Every structure is written in C-alpha cells, then in structure tokens.
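Query structure, 1483 tokens:
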C-alpha cells in the first residue's frame, strides 16, 4: 500500500476574522487556510526599516536590518490613545512613519476543512479574563468552539457540535450534504451564532450573556433578600455539560421554512447590528434563479428577530421585487446600519425601516432589473466575487475590492439617522487602487487604518491607508477625531449599541460632524505586509538550475547547486507567477577558494583602544551583536595542517575577502581556537584555546592570559566548548567541569566568578550556554529590574538535568528541570517522568533568538547525538500570588519539527579524517544573516534554523557537502553574509538569497511574476528554457463577417463580455525574463503545454525535443468548439546587445486544426517518437511529418471531456481520465498501430487528474476526483470479479479534504548510495508528487508490506494517544465523507480488504511525544524495543584526546547496551523514508 504525506502547508487563505483571543495581545487575526488555522498579532515597526513590498514573495525583512522598533501593538487602543496625546501632528506622522506587521502567535493543523470563522465575545466577568472564543465551522455541518489556554499556551476545545444526523438532512429529494456550502454567521453582540447547512436548515447556538449569569455578582442580600440557590441539574444536549462550566446554551436546528414559508431558496443571510435581540436578515426567493426562464426581480429580503428562549421568531420587515443577481447580505454598523445587498450588477442598501437605496454599476443592470437604482453604469464594474468591509463607519465609507483586485470606495450619504443615498468611486492606481492583484476571499479589519486582505489566488496582504490632510484640518481633528481612537472592527462597534432605543452620549449629528473634520484628504493605500502564497498550483515541472556559461557565477556555484529545481505555475490573473523551489538553501556565492586546513571561523568587530585623553568622554555604545552597522574587521581561523598540527591564525577582512595579518601579538602557535568573540562592549577580543583564554585589545595587542589550571589538584583540564555573553564567559571542560568568568568594566580583565553553589562544583556538566535576554521572556518580575538585559546561564548535566542561573548570582539556580532528557511535549520545573522511562542523549543545548528584523523570540535548542534537533519555546505565566518563584512561572513548549538530520556518508576515511570527524562542532548563533536571527548546525547535515515573524521555526539544510567551520561574515562586499568551509576543503563567502523565502514553506521558494493568468509550464532541456502557456482576458468581439448574422457587424456596446486569449511566453532559465512571446488567435485558449521527444525525420528517424501546445477555440455556446495542436522548436537567433540570454526564439514546426473538440491533454506515446493527443471525445496517436502536418495512426473513442492523459514512459501503457466518466486504462502497439482498452473504472466519477504509480512489479492507478478523494485502482485480469480485467480493481479511497490533487509528477526515488552498491535496480522505486489548488504539495509513496503494517499500526496508535485540535477525528477525516460516499458508486471492483493509505500527517506528530511515550507506542506498533529504552546516560560517549566530545562516542553509547537503541533507529529510518522530501534530494 501507500503513504500520503503533505510536504508543504496550504497557503491559500479562505477565511479570516479579528478576535481578541490571546490575553494581553490586543486584537488577534485568525486566518484559515483550508485545514490550517493561524493566529497572528500585529506589531508596528518603523517605516524606514520596512522593505518595500515586492511581488516575488521574497522575505520582506531584506531591505534593512538595523534600528529601533516600536513594539506597541498596532491595535492596542490604550497604546494608540497614549501616543496621540503627544505633540502636534503625531497622528499624521505615525501613519507615514510606521508599518504594521503580522507576527505569528500559534498555528494548528486541523484534520478537517474550515468553512467559516466567527468571533464570540465572552462576558466580561468570565474566567478567561475577557478574551474571546473562536467558533469554527467545518465541512459537513460541524462546529467547534475553541479558546486560548494560557497555562498550556495553545488553543483548546470548549465544545463540539455535529448537525449531520440523518433526520436533519435525510429528505429523499434533498441532495447529499456535501453538495451545499455551509455558512457560519455570528451575532455582532455574540448572543448566538447560526450555521446554515443542507438546503434550508439553520442551526442556532446561543451564548450566555452577563444578564443570564448565575453568579449574580451585583446581588445585594440586604436589599434583594437571600441569594437564590443555583440549579446545577441542567445538562446540555449536543455537548452535554453542566450550566456552570459552558459559555453556551443548548443549540437547536430551525428549518428556514419555519421562520417564513416563502424561504424556499435561501441565498444568503447575516446578523444585523443595532438590535436588542439577535436579528437576522435573509435574502431568498420562492423560485430558483435562472437567466434563461425569464424570471425577473423575484428575490425577497426579510428581517427576523430571534427569541432564543422560546425558539421563535418575529418578522420585522420584508422587501420584495429585488433583482435576481443578488448574492450576499453585508450587515453595516452604525451610523449607517441596515444591510447592503450585493449583486453582480448593483448594490442595494436596506435600512431598519425597509427603505431602499441602490446604485447600478454597469449598463447591463437596466436589462436585468426594474428596481429603482441610481445610475452609475459608466463605472462598468463586475461585482461577482467582490469583498466589502468598513473603512470609516462614522464617515459612511466602506472599502470595495473587485474580483480583479481593483479598489473602490462606497460612500453613504447620511441625513440624521437615515441613509439618503450611496455612491461608488474607484481609486486611481497612483493612490494604491491597484495594489491588490488577485480575487479576495476575506477582509478583516485589524487596526485603525489597516485591513487584512485574504486571497486564494495570490499573496494575502495587510493593507494600510492614510489620508492626505491640510495643516489646519489636522489641528482641528486633533481635538475630536473619532476615527483615531478605535479599532473599527465590525463587532467592536456594537458594544454600546445593542439596545436600539438606548441612551446615547453623543448624537449621530455630533459624531458625524466630528468625523467629517478628517474627510478633507484623499485616501492613499499601500501594502504593509504580505503572506506568501503558491496557490493555486496549476502545473508542475522540473528543470536544471543554469547560469551563464563560463561565468564567475557558474564557477562559484559548483557543488552548492541542486541537480534539479521544481518549477510550478502558481496564482491566477495578475498574481500569476512561476515558483522555483528547492529543498535546501542555495547560497549566493561571493567568493570561493581552497582552504583545506580550516576547522573554525570567527569574525569579530572590535573598537580600537581609546586614547587616555578621551577616556572620560562618552564613547560609542554597541551591543554584543553587530547592530551598530559596523563591518567585521578580523577573522580568527582554527587550523589543522596535513601533519595534524593545530594552530590558529588571524586575518584582516577586506571588501571582497580576507588577507593574512602580521605584526600583531596574536600567536598562531598557541594552539587550536575553540571559541572567539568580543567582550567589554567590543573593547576586547577573546580567544578561547583548549588550554587557556587570551584577551586582546582592538589592535590585537595581548592584554591577558587566563590558564586552565586547577590550583588545588594541579590538573589542566582542556576546554571543550565555550559561550560568550558580554561581560560573562562560560567554558565546559573535558573533565565535565565549568569555568565561569566575568570581565570587569573598568579594568577590562577577566576574573573567575566564585561558584558559590555546591552543585556547580559537584555535578558533571555535559553542555551549556549563556544567553542575553533581550525580550524579557526570562525576566525576574519580582525584582523589578526594568528593561535591563538579563544574562542567564543554561547548564545541562550528564544525567540530563537542566539548570538555569541568573548571572552574576551563582548562589542557587533559579530553575531546575529534571525532565529535559525525557524530551517531554511540555517542560516545567515540576515535570516528573514515570520510573524507568527511557531517556534520550542530548549532545548540546543552545538558547538563541530566532526570527527576523520584525520580531525575534528565544528558543531552547537541543541537539541529539544523531544531529536531530528538538526546539522548545519558553513562555511565562502571570504570577498568581505575590512573590511566586521564577521556576513556577517559566514553561517550555515543544515546537513541531519532523526534519531528520542526514546520516554521514559511508566512505572509507583515513586517520586524519577520523580525527576531524570526532571533533565536536558546536552550533553557531548568528544575529544577522540576510536579516535572519538564526542558528547554524555544522557537521554532516549542515542546516540553518530559520524563522520569520509570520512563520514557525524551520530547519533548512545548506546545499552541498558537510560543513566543518562556519561564521557570520559582514563586510562591504558581503553584507550580512557568512563564511564556511566544507569537508572537501573549499571555503566560501556567501549570502542567503534575499529574493527567496524559506521559513514560510520550509523550503526555498522564489517567485517570478508573470502577470498573466498562467495555465501550464514546460521545461526544454536542450536550451534550458521554460515555455509558459498563458491566457489573457480581452473584450469579446462578434465576428463581423458572419453571413448568417449580418446584424453582428452593427453591434455597438461598450460593456462587452471578457474572454481568454492564449499566448506562449519563452522564459530564460538564467535571468527569468521573457525573451519571446507568441500570441494565439482571438478566443483561442491555451490548455496544455508539454515537452515531447518527437521523431522529426521519417528517413533518418531523428528525434528532437519539441514543445507541443494544445488549444481550444470557443466563440460562444451556439458555435462548436474547435481545437489546435501546435509544435514549436526553440531556435538559436542573434541575441540583443548586452542580453546574451535572448539568443532563443520559438519557431513553429507544425500546426494541425482539429475540427471538433478542444485539445485538452498531450503526451508522448510508444518508442517511435509519436504523440498522444486528447482531442474532443477522442484520444488519437499522431506522428509529425516533414511537411508540418500531424498524421493520425491510431485512436480510442472517449466519452465526454478528457482531463488527463499519461503514459508509463516507453511502455505504451496509457491512462486517460474523463471529467465525468472515470478512468480508462489502455495499451498502444506500434506494429500494427493500434490502441486497445484493457480496463476502466466506474462510469460515475469526476476525475480531475490520474497518474501511474509503479511499485516493484505492481502497477497502481491513482485517480483524484472532484470531492477531494484519491482512489487507488489496479488492473488485474485474474480477479474473478474484474470480468477478465475489463473492470479495474478498487484498492482503497483516501480523502484529502480541500486539497484536491489537480496536477501530478511521477518521480524516481534516489537515496544516497555507497560506492559499493552501484548495481542497477531492476524496478527502481518511484513516488508521485501531487499539487492542489490550496498551494499544498503532497507525495504518495508505495510501501513494502512489512513497513506498511508497522506504519499503519503506528498511525492508529498515534491517533489514539494524541489530543486532536477542535475535537476532530483524523481517521474519520481521511475516510470518504459520509454524504459523498452515500451517493458515490465505487470506482471499481471492491478489492480493498480493509486497507487504507497511511496518513503521513499523523505520523509527523510522532516527534511531539516524549521519549517514554514514543518507545511505548513504537513497541505496540511492532518495532523492536530494547530493555534499556534505547539510550545510555548522556555523556557516556568517550572523550578523546583533543578535548572534543565525540559524536561517534555518543552514537556508540546510544546503541551500546543490549541493542536498546535499535527500535528508535528503526522507527526513525522508516519515518525518514516517508516524511518530508525523502528520496527527492535532487531538488
């Protein structure tokens, strides 16, 4: 069987909502990406530090890396009000000088498809401290209520509600549940929420209000008598629980026909503002909307007030005769109020009294409706798929974003409390009216002047605006500007307006007049931040990374470029782009040279000694890290020569590289450098040798030597690792002792700090580090030290206990965690594992800030013996009692990381290489590499741990061989780069590419904007160029020369329908620029582009790689669709001056018209260089003739529309997928030319994509349908029910949720092999790469029988052992959806025998467990479990002569006793084979 693994997270934003979820963070932004829920907060940064938003999805932190940030939350009301109390013009200055940025707080992968989000405000006296709940709706009528658990620092489920029971939806004439979209809406005052599901069902979930509170905090026994007793007997159906601990009341389901008998065809509904009781507006009809039946103006808008206690409703108003193209109800806040009805051609506002005002936005409105509308038809707008949100409610301004991304302004004219009209104005491009490039799926108001714009077709952005105001108007608006002191969130605006007849402190007229003081300026929009998206993925291909021949870049990039790169056509419309993906970081090489003796690099920037005459003055201040912008000046290099002699050298850094430095007091023969850095505010350079510590001044004059000598015993322990945090130094020595020193600020000399705590002297220490706490995560709240940087010392004992000391206090540790070596999911000071629980060996610990210039946060990083990494994020709880100790408030939460380190290459090594391999290479903290605050892992699996403000930490490997030395490198010629030396003896000065993003998807992604809707992409290997098939929209012109319709020539309309017109773009693989364009005929659409190896000569049988293009000509429903096949070659031409890449051009070789049917798919077929063409209802084999025609030689009749054609290369076995009639498995023979049908699937299956998946001698067919199911089929003529193979066997069905695979690539699996195993495999393994419209890339891998049994058993055990977010069931999620399976015929003869595809998403969570739980679950799943739990105590690896801790020793210790480690290595090996990009290392 197979394993399905998701390689990248979904990136298409489907829903968003602002919610005050996490206490103390102001307003959060909840973003749903199909099955991924992300929670963000916002942060204001200085605009000078903010990189301009780019279109290529690059990391936005690249422009600038230095400066001071305003950490105040962008939507914190108190912060805003305080900032506006300052001097004149601060408000206007803040808009110009600041940018809002998104910062990820949490993300949760859900085993379900999110179909709606809603904010539920809790009563102010609730236990959550006033934080809100988040209500999620899922496909097939399910609701989950979640809230933030402060103690566990994560989301937890409050309740689950299911409404998919048969009695609710089981009418015989009603379609299955999955045919109807679900709609979740919430009352603005959070009194209830409603879920519309099936055709006419409405589930109501009421929420408790303060006046219902059973605690009655305001009860006065003297006045009100004795307090009544609480009734604790109440239990709740649909989530049974006591009244006391639930924020909701019992839910119930209403048929919409119970509200009103005429609600037969509901279109949309929304809860309205400004009503005392929950009030809902419903847009519906008694007839089905139809353009062909002549129906007109038959929609009705009705408003109902709900009585939640009586489960009854009252009709308030009804407006009839509305246009039938209305599709949405938008509830508007005060002072506008009422509802805005959105149609394709008009906007209509209905106020609380039923009065209507509308505007027509295009000339078609007059033909579609007789409803009274104001004429603005000259705007020529199409409102399908538009989005509307509040811009300034007091001004009656609302933001309109069309489906092509253009911005408009809807302005309501308000007289008193009534709306007298509305108008629409489109924004000019120079005012930011075209900054959005794709259709919008959600709008969420985040701050005072920012809104989040979510999109499924391109990058989602944080959009901000400013008003250009005159100086006098600014002063007036300073006094009373109601647009400045609120987050104008839809729900927030209603906090004080729940009572329709309540008293108002300010009259609407006063509010309006105050607000209009700000209206004098025009709006100007700009993008503050963006979320990278590669959705939807239209097509995938692969190509070779190329550079200009014989260029310096080509020479430098040798050894650090991948063999292939994955290229995807992503996005739609103006947001279309090519996404170039690689698994590892491909560094940008500045310089490359031989440096075989290098074993360690340290670059430093030190201040020159200050003359004594200036000592009293204030000198320049700089931090430990290079934030002052100064370049590095010196580089200390640890060397081992060919004879094994260890030395250290110092080099002066130049703009392009470095040169040897002589004439200083630096002594190369002093020994091997273990660590180097600066101390004393960059006044001293520190060199830590194995036997001593040397201090130099800024000119490398020796100022102090501190020997490693134990005066009591006379022993000279050798330094193993060191950590520097000015003014402290920590050394871990080979006798497991620690040495702690402090540099005096005046004398600038190192003095050993007395170890007052006996634990420091009596305990054996394995690893440790110093950390400067800049974010106050580890701050001592009881001491009240303010914002002064704390320096903490983290020590790991050989028994696996973590100690934290707050320097300089060494009297006692402030935190002790006994359970670190058990690797628990959550670590606290009082964590205790069960007796006998297995421990895991930890080789190194490091605490470092990870992030970018926008946001950094500390992480505790554990490095295991096999170079795997475990990351913990620290968080604090507020002290519940005065004087609560630090250890009770600090917790560590494990961060998901399923990346396994690469195993060292198995090659014969000599003694010198063995000596190098045994040297311990510690992790390196880097404060600024291309804007990233990161950690580098050296060794055989070189990797960076990267994180941006909008992502969680990701471990990305560095392309190339193992690394034995690395340091940051910041010079004029290499800004914020790094230098490293690999195991082949090559040193490189490099940068992380700033035009790529890494942490968002966990791989390198570079987006190349195309700007036109991209349908397909193909790579042409001989020229190393890419051909992109695009479609651009243009107005449709009726044929003027039609003999049957003479009147067409006289047509004169301005508002014409838009149709696609195809074009081919030839892109250079070197510069990624368009070097040639070929336009198709009007109304001709490109459907497929493929690179085919075709025979071009019948006499010589010469073969050539050519580009084949399939198109469709569609000129309306009354004319038949025709198709064309084009064959292009890429010819050499004379390039343009200075542009050597323009030496290629598309040359037409053949063109064939297909009289009936479009050409929808192309493929190679057979061994003679022929092509298989899916044309209309036929699949035809054609050969290219020398006269430029395509000769048909064989065909197969199909049914409706062929969506996919694939051939197993060179075999003649073909697969054809029909859009409605399933999958056909055929064979093609060449003598004679013939196609024959072997077998086919069920005739009722909508197949989007189909492909082969070979598994040894078995051949499987993988088909994906329109419901998101993957079907595994097999051809087996010997099966008794297959009718001699005419029916394909159905092995299993797997549900992918919203991630429908619409494109696939069959790829070989290649593992690193040792030189001895060079024999060719008869049936090499393959994997199937799948891409979906949500931007998710997945893989389907065949498994051997024994591995399948173990992994499927492991997945079952994990499903039972792990908590699942939102109360969802991962196993049920992967089964065919009940409503779909009830109506779905099996795609073939059922031969599944109860087997399912293994869910890799569940297997990924294996690493979330602690060591003991992992061992227990692995044992139950059938893996070998050793008696020792798989590890020896940490530190039992041998210490070898040079004082370095041996990773080999640790590995030997790991497997040393009774084979105990074998079970973990076995699990790790099998998980590593199915998770991530295993076997696809050529990317």
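Result returned for the query:
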């Amino acid at each position: 069987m197979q394993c399905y693994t998701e390689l990248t997270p979904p990136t298409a934003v489907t829903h968003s909502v602002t919610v005050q979820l996490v206490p103390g963070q102001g307003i959060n932004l909840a973003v749903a990406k199909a099955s991924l829920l992300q929670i963000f907060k916002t942060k204001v940064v200085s605009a000078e530090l903010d990189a301009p938003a780019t279109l290529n999805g690059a990391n936005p932190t690249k422009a600038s890396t230095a400066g001071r940030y305003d950490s105040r939350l962008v939507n914190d009301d108190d912060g805003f009000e305080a900032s506006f109390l300052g001097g004149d013009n601060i408000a206007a200055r803040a808009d110009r000088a600041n940018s809002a940025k998104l910062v990820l707080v949490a993300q949760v992968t859900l085993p379900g498809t999110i179909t709606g989000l809603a904010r539920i405000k809790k009563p102010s006296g609730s236990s959550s401290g006033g934080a809100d709940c988040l209500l999620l709706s899922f496909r097939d009528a399910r609701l989950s209520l979640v809230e933030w658990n402060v103690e566990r620092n994560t989301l937890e489920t409050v309740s689950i509600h299911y409404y998919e029971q048969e009695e609710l939806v089981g009418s015989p004439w009603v379609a299955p549940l999955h045919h109807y979209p679900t709609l979740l809406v919430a009352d603005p005052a959070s009194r209830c929420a409603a879920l519309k599901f099936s055709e006419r069902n409405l589930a109501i979930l009421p929420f408790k209000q303060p006046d219902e509170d059973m605690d009655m905090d305001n009860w006065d026994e003297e006045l009100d008598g004795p307090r009544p007793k609480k009734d604790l007997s109440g239990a709740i159906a649909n989530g049974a629980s006591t009244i006391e601990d639930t924020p909701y009341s019992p839910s119930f389901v209403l048929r919409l026909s119970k509200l009103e008998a005429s609600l037969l065809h509901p279109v949309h509904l929304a809860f309205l503002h400004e009503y005392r009781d929950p009030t809902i507006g419903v847009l519906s009809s008694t007839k089905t909307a139809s353009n062909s039946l002549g129906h007109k103006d038959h929609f009705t808008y009705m408003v109902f007030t709900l009585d939640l206690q009586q489960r009854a409703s009252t009709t308030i108003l009804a407006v009839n005769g509305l246009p039938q193209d209305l599709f949405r109800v938008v509830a508007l806040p005060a002072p506008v109020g009422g509802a805005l009805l959105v149609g394709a051609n008009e906007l209509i506002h209905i106020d609380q009294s039923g009065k209507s005002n509308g505007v027509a936005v295009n000339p078609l409105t007059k033909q579609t409706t007789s409803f009274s509308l104001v004429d603005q038809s000259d705007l020529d707008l199409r409102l399908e798929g538009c989005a509307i949100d509040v811009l300034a409610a007091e001004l009656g301004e609302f933001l309109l974003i069309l489906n092509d991304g253009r911005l408009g302004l809807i302005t309501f004219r308000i007289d008193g409390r009534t709306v007298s009209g509305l108008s629409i104005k489109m924004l000019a491009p120079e005012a930011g009216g075209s900054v959005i490039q794709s259709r919008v799926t959600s709008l969420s108001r985040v701050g005072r002047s920012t809104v989040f714009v979510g999109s499924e077709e391109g990058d989602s952005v944080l959009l901000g605006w400013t008003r250009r105001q005159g100086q006098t108007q600014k002063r007036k608006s300073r006094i009373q500007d109601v647009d400045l002191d609120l987050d104008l969130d839809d729900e927030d605006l209603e906090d004080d307006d729940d009572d329709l007849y309540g008293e108002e402190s300010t009259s609407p007229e006063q509010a309006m007049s105050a607000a209009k003081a700000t209206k004098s300026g025009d709006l100007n929009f700009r993008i503050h931040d963006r979320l990278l998206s590669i959705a939807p993925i239209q097509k995938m291909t692969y190509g070779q990374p190329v550079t200009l021949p014989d260029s310096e870049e080509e020479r430098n990039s040798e050894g650090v470029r991948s063999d292939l790169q994955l290229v995807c056509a992503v996005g739609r419309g103006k947001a279309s782009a090519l996404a170039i993906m690689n698994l590892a970081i491909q560094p940008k090489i500045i310089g490359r040279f031989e440096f075989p003796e290098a074993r360690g690099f340290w670059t430093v920037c030190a201040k020159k000694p200050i003359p004594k005459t200036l000592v009293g003055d204030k000198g320049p201040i700089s931090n430990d890290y290079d934030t002052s912008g100064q370049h590095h000046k010196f580089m200390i290099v640890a060397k081992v020569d060919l004879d094994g002699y260890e030395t250290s050298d110092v080099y002066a850094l130049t703009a392009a590289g470095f040169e040897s430095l002589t004439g200083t007091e630096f002594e190369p023969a002093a020994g091997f450098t273990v660590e180097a850095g600066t101390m004393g505010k960059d006044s001293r350079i520190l060199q830590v040798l194995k036997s001593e510590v040397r201090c130099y001044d800024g000119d490398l004059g020796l100022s102090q030597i501190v020997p490693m000598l134990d005066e009591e015993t006379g022993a000279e322990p050798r330094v193993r690792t060191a950590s520097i945090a000015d003014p402290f130094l920590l050394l871990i020595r080979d006798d497991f002792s620690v040495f702690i020193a402090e540099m005096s600020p005046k004398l600038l000399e190192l003095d050993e700090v007395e170890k007052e705590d006996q634990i420091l002297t009596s305990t054996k220490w394995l690893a440790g580090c110093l950390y400067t706490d800049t974010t106050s995560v580890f701050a001592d709240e009881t001491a009240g030290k303010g914002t002064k940087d704390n320096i903490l010392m983290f020590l790991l004992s050989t028994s696996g206990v973590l100690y934290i000391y707050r320097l300089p206090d060494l009297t006692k540790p402030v935190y002790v965690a006994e359970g670190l070596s058990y690797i628990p999911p959550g670590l606290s000071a009082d964590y205790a594992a069960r007796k006998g629980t297995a421990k895991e060996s930890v080789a190194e610990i490091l605490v470092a800030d990870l992030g970018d210039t926008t946001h950094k946060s500390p992480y505790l990083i554990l490095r295991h013996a096999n170079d795997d990494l475990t990351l913990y994020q620290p968080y604090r709880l507020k002290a519940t009692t005065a004087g609560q100790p630090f250890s009770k408030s600090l917790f560590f939460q494990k961060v998901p990381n399923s990346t396994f380190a690469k195993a060292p290459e198995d090659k014969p090594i000599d003694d010198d290489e063995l000596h190098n391999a045994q040297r311990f290479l510690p992790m390196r903290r880097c404060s600024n590499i291309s804007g990233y605050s990161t950690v580098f892992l050296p060794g055989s699996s070189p990797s960076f741990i990267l994180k941006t403000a909008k992502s969680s930490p990701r471990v990305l490997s560095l392309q190339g061989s193992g690394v034995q030395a690395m340091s940051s490198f910041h010079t004029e010629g290499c800004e914020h780069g790094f230098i490293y030396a690999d195991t082949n003896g090559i040193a490189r000065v490099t940068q992380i590419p700033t035009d790529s993003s890494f942490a968002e998807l966990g791989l390198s992604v570079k987006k190349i904007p195309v700007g036109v809707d991209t349908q397909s992409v193909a790579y042409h290997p001989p020229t190393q160029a890419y051909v992109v098939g695009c479609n651009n929209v243009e107005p449709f012109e009726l044929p003027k020369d039609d003999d049957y319709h003479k009147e067409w020539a006289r047509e004169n309309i301005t508002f014409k329908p838009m149709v696609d017109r195809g074009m081919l773009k030839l892109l250079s693989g070197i510069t990624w620029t368009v070097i040639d364009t070929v336009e198709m005929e009007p109304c001709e659409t490109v459907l497929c582009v493929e690179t085919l190896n075709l025979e071009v000569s019948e006499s010589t049988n010469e073969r050539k790689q050519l580009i084949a293009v399939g198109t469709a000509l569609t000129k309306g429903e009354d004319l038949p669709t025709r198709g064309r096949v084009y064959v292009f070659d890429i010819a050499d031409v004379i390039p343009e001056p200075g542009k050597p890449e323009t030496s290629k051009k598309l040359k037409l070789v053949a063109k064939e018209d297909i009289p009936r049917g479009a050409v929808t798919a192309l493929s190679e077929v057979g061994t003679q260089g022929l092509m298989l063409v899916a044309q209309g209802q036929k699949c035809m084999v054609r050969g290219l003739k020398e006269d430029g025609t395509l000769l048909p030689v064989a065909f197969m009749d199909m049914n409706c529309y062929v969506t996919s054609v694939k051939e197993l290369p060179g075999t003649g076995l073909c697969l054809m997928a029909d859009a409605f009639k399933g999958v056909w498995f055929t064979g093609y023979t060449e003598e004679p030319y013939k196609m024959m049908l072997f077998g086919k699937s069920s005739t009722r299956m909508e197949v989007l994509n189909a492909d082969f998946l070979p598994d040894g001698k078995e051949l499987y067919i993988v088909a994906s349908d329109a419901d998101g199911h993957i079907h595994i089929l097999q051809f087996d003529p010997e099966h008794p029910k297959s009718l001699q193979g005419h029916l394909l066997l159905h092995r299993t069905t797997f549900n992918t949720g919203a991630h429908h695979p619409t494109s696939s690539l069959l790829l070989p699996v290649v593992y690193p092999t040792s030189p001895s195993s060079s024999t060719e495999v008869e049936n090499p393994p393959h994997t199937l790469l799948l891409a979906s419209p949500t931007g998710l890339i997945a893989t389907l891998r065949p498994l051997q029988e024994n591995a399948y049994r173990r992994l499927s058993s492991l997945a079952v055990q994990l499903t039972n052992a792990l908590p699942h977010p939102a109360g969802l069931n991962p196993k049920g999620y992967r089964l065919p959806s009940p409503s779909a399976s009830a109506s779905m015929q099996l795609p073939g003869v059922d031969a599944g025998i109860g087997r399912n595809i293994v869910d890799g998403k569940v297997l990924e969570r294996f690493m979330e467990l602690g060591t003991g739980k992992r061992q227990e679950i692995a044992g139950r799943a059938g893996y070998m479990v050793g008696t020792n739990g798989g590890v020896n105590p940490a530190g039992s690896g041998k210490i070898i002569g040079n004082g370095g801790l041996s990773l080999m020793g640790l590995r030997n210790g790991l497997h040393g006793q009774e084979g105990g480690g074998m079970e973990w290595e076995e699990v790790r090996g099998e998980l590593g084979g199915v998770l991530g990009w295993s076997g696809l290392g050529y990317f």
